[in-house]
Amino acid sequence: MAELPPVPEKNPGLENPFTQVPIEIVVSVGTARPVIRDLLGLKPDAILPLDRNVNDPVELFIGDKLIARGELEEREGDPEGGLVVRLTEVAELKHGI
């Protein structure tokens, strides 16, 4: 008798068509809190201080829901210095966003 092919593992994502809908993830590197007077005076090359340091983790949001934290890195092999986020913490998302 011929052997049966292995049964592929079920991937719940393939059964639900909504798993194919693209979403937007916002990566937050920090927050600025200028007074309106300073905001109105902003011009090109102005500096807007943030509440974070360059090596602090970034936060990833879908809407207002924090879904993960990570570290910014340059994309390997990208001559133009593209960025990626290496995830260090991920929220439990089984019960929705």
From TrEMBL:
<dbReference type="Pfam" id="PF01052">
    <property type="entry name" value="FliMN_C"/>
</dbReference>
<feature type="domain" description="Flagellar motor switch protein FliN-like C-terminal">
    <location>
        <begin position="20"/>
        <end position="90"/>
    </location>
</feature>
<dbReference type="InterPro" id="IPR001543">
    <property type="entry name" value="FliN-like_C"/>
</dbReference>
<dbReference type="InterPro" id="IPR001172">
    <property type="entry name" value="FliN_T3SS_HrcQb"/>
</dbReference>
<protein>
    <recommendedName>
        <fullName>Flagellar motor switch protein FliN-like C-terminal domain-containing protein</fullName>
    </recommendedName>
</protein>
<comment type="similarity">
    <text>Belongs to the FliN/MopA/SpaO family.</text>
</comment>
<dbReference type="InterPro" id="IPR036429">
    <property type="entry name" value="SpoA-like_sf"/>
</dbReference>
